[in-house]
């Protein structure tokens, strides 16, 4: 369910002045770009692409984002798979470059912004059309949030990080009420196009209540609004 109003306004990019704001909102816009791509909203995708380019340039990593190629793909209505693949590859190149240049703090902010926006959009869609699959996806983010906070804690003395960590820790306290049960299963094997493919039989079962989802939705909206303001 696509609604442009749910996404961060592309023109808001002009108010992000610090490295912290630029990095975390680069992650936000990256998710919005992907969301617009999936729904075939070409013009919106180009607007988000422009915001991504501006923030990447502001962080000194614009050279690793192939703007022209992605823009060309975004303008085409029948090259969605290529567009998503190219966008993903570009963000991977950016993250690899940041790690090579010992700027992991920027990389983790991009990742965190992308995660916040992705889960936020999932909660918004679930509000409009509640279903168990979306609830499970939201609840299953407990593990990801735990891992994010472990990495963010490394940079807690860096400007901007402390407030973000405090906010996400409050979210973690809600997630602590959710149980993610791992059920170990036997792997299965099948031949596909002459290749033996092994599928892991292990699965996770998320025990999450409507109250949990409501609390996550409310707090995540507040956190996201602080990030994009």
Label this structure with key terms.
mainly alpha, 229 residues
Commentary on this structure:
There is one protein chain. The protein has nine helices and four strands, in the order H-H-H-H-H-H-H-H-E-E-E-E-H. It has 229 residues and is mainly alpha-helical. The protein has one domain (4-179, 209-228). The strands form two sheets. The protein has a two-stranded antiparallel ribbon. A two-stranded antiparallel ribbon has the order 2-3. The longest helix has 25 residues, at 104-128. The radius of gyration is 19 Å and the shape is globular. The mean pLDDT is 89.
Briefly, what is this?
With 229 residues, the chain is mainly α. It has helices at residues 19-38, 42-58, 67-74, 80-100, 104-128, 132-139, 141-152, 161-175, 210-228; strands at 179-183, 188-192, 195-199, 203-207.
**Count of folded domains:** 1
Q: State the strand order across the main sheet.
A: 1-4
Largest sheet: 2 strands, antiparallel
Q: How much beta, percentage-wise?
A: 5-15%
Low-confidence stretches: none
- Radius of gyration, rounded? 19 Å
Tell me the overall shape: globular
Structural topology:
Layout: H1 19-38, H2 42-58, H3 67-74, H4 80-100, H5 104-128, H6 132-139, H7 141-152, H8 161-175, E1 179-183, E2 188-192, E3 195-199, E4 203-207, H9 210-228
Antiparallel strand pairs: 1-4, 2-3
């Amino acid at each position: 369910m696509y609604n442009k109003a749910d996404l961060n306004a592309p023109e808001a990019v002009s108010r992000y002045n610090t490295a912290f704001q630029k990095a975390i909102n680069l992650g936000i816009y990256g998710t919005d770009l992907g969301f617009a791509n999936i729904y075939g909203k070409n013009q919106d995708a180009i607007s988000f692409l422009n915001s991504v380019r501006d923030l990447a340039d502001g962080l000194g990593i614009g050279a690793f984002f192939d703007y022209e190629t992605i823009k060309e793909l975004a303008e085409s209505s029948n090259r969605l798979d290529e567009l998503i693949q190219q966008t993903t590859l570009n963000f991977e190149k950016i993250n690899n470059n940041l790690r090579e240049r010992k700027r992991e703090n920027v990389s983790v902010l991009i990742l965190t912004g992308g995660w916040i926006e992705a889960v936020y959009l999932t909660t918004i869609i679930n509000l409009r059309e509640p279903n168990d699959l979306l609830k499970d996806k939201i609840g299953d983010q407990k593990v990801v949030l735990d891992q994010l906070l472990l990495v963010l804690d490394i940079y807690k003395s860096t400007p901007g990080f402390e407030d973000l960590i405090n906010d996400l820790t409050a979210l973690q306290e809600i997630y602590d009420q959710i149980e993610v049960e791992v059920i170990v299963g036997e792997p299965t094997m099948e031949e596909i196009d002459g290749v033996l493919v092994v599928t892991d039989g292990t699965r996770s079962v998320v025990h999450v209540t409507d109250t949990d989802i409501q609390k996550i939705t409310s707090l995540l909206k507040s956190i996201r609004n602080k990030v994009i303001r």
